[in-house]
Amino acid sequence: MTTLAILTAAGSGSRLGRDLPKALVELDGFPLVLHAARRLAASGVVDSIVVTAPDGLVGVMADLMAGDPHVGIPVRVTDGGPTRQASVAAGLALARPEDDVVLVHDAARPLVPPELVQRVVSAVRSGHGAVVPGLPVTDTVKQVRPDGDAELVTGTPDRSMLRAVQTPQGFARDLLVRAHHTGAERAAAEHLAATDDAGLVEALGEPVHIVPGDAAAFKITTERDLWLASLVLQETTA
Ligand code: C5P
């Protein structure tokens, strides 16, 4: 039985303000998607990767992966979709029967520690159908609703019971397939904001477990995040 990692890289990343899709923006001389693929492979628990590529860039992504000596596991590249959910579904369509565990990881989290990948896979292999890395929330979080030209606070959830979740998220393959069909339909019908794959599993009413996340797996959204990532890399390679 094998583990497939779907590496979502089809987003535009417009908040970075570059002409390039975010996954191809360079960090320390290498595109973000390559950093992420190398770390997934370095975990030793991922057997193959499917990358979802932005429009017209399947060839570019495939060349990038094939030319890298550090990835070292089979990588296929497919067209992503208009939303992240559609991109994951496109990747999932390429899962092979032997891929009983599927990870979904964002190329926008290039510095994911291989140990975190191992932690997620081992929790799925120990019997949890859906596993998400999460970190305690340090800010107080307010729930709001629109109120004229401002927002009105409607509640303050207990911070100790909140987790900020990351990727890779790990799933038993059959559960993720069901989540992307029935779960996605239910989430849409009930207007649930399923902004990650675990949210679709929750829409099915199936349990999702949390394992400890890692600050290094932070998501790159802004130019400042890119700068922080280069500092983290310097620190870890020093
Ligand atoms: O935009 P955001 O940073 O939330 O995207 C998360 C991940 O999903 C990124 O790695 C991005 O490339 C990917 N994505 C995708 N297909 C889309 C939109 C986003 O693969 N249509």
TrEMBL record:
Enzyme Commission number(s): 2.7.7.60
Site residues, Transition state stabilizer: 15, 22
Pathway assignment: Isoprenoid biosynthesis; isopentenyl diphosphate biosynthesis via DXP pathway; isopentenyl diphosphate from 1-deoxy-D-xylulose 5-phosphate: step 2/6
One Gene Ontology MF term: 2-C-methyl-D-erythritol 4-phosphate cytidylyltransferase activity
Keywords annotated in UniProt: Isoprene biosynthesis, Nucleotidyltransferase, Transferase
Database matches in Gene3D superfamilies: Spore Coat Polysaccharide Biosynthesis Protein SpsA, Chain A
Top enzyme category: transferase
Site feature location: Positions MEP for the nucleophilic attack: 159, 219
Reactions performed catalytically: 2-C-methyl-D-erythritol 4-phosphate + CTP + H(+) = 4-CDP-2-C-methyl-D-erythritol + diphosphate
Pfam families associated with the record: IspD (PF01128)
Function: Catalyzes the formation of 4-diphosphocytidyl-2-C-methyl-D-erythritol from CTP and 2-C-methyl-D-erythritol 4-phosphate (MEP).
Family membership noted in the UniProt record: Belongs to the IspD/TarI cytidylyltransferase family. IspD subfamily.
The protein's name: 2-C-methyl-D-erythritol 4-phosphate cytidylyltransferase
Organism of provenance: Promicromonospora alba
